[in-house]
Design brief:
Helix content is 20%, strand content 24%. The chain is an alpha+beta fold. The chain has a domain of 71 residues. The strands form three sheets. It has a six-stranded antiparallel sheet with strand order 7-6-5-4-3-8, covered by helices on one side. The chain has a two-stranded antiparallel sheet with strand order 1-2. It has a two-stranded antiparallel sheet with strand order 9-10.
């Protein structure tokens, strides 16, 4: 008696070959049909909104927000913005749209290079963030020591954390001092 396994349930039973006769020729022997697993490649996309921090191996960092516009003429568009001020909930400047296929960013013209210069910092940020989101550990930036962190909230006060040290520890600097009794 043969043992029933999960693999044996997935393997179709062997069928005899099918013989198709043709006029004035020897019969052609066709192999029996075989079940072939189908794998559908799903392209990586920039699938969700949120705050992302890129930590540099040199110690600096940049924080970005991807957010869907809820009202007005841009309703439904997803905008990439850079944190550029002290308030990590409101101090963002938008500079690109998430493209229609969600596989990158379309930098707005005012932030693009002119024909006589190299790319702008804005274009570099958009390229870097897209590659790190889409390629993960395979990104050339990860190989150079950069880290992509998804911003979280402080475990004490629930404020948004955007600094790499705070994201790693799960607590903001003010709450950390309070917990330490300082």
């Amino acid at each position: 008696m043969s043992q029933l396994t999960f693999a044996s349930l997935l393997t179709p039973p062997a069928a005899p070959p099918v013989v198709v006769p043709t006029p004035a020729m020897a019969p052609i022997v066709m192999p029996a049909p075989v079940a072939v697993p189908v794998t559908v490649a799903v392209p990586a996309t920039i699938s969700h909104n949120g705050e992302f921090t890129i930590a540099s191996p040199k110690g600096g960092h940049r924080t970005f927000r991807i957010k869907t516009v809820k009202h007005g003429s841009l309703k439904g568009k997803r905008i990439l913005a850079l944190l550029n001020g002290p308030d990590n909930t409101t101090s963002y400047v938008g500079f690109a749209f998430v493209n229609k296929t969600a596989t990158g960013f379309d930098v707005w013209n005012r932030y693009k290079k002119n024909p006589f210069s190299t790319g702008t910092d804005w274009e570099f940020y958009a390229t870097m963030l897209a590659e790190m989101i889409l390629k993960g550990d395979e990104s050339i930036f990860v190989a150079k020591g950069y880290r992509l962190l998804s911003s979280t909230r402080c475990r004490v006060c629930n404020r948004l954390l955007t600094h790499p040290n705070s994201i790693d520890s799960g607590i903001g600097p003010e709450c950390e001092l309070k917990e330490a009794g300082l």
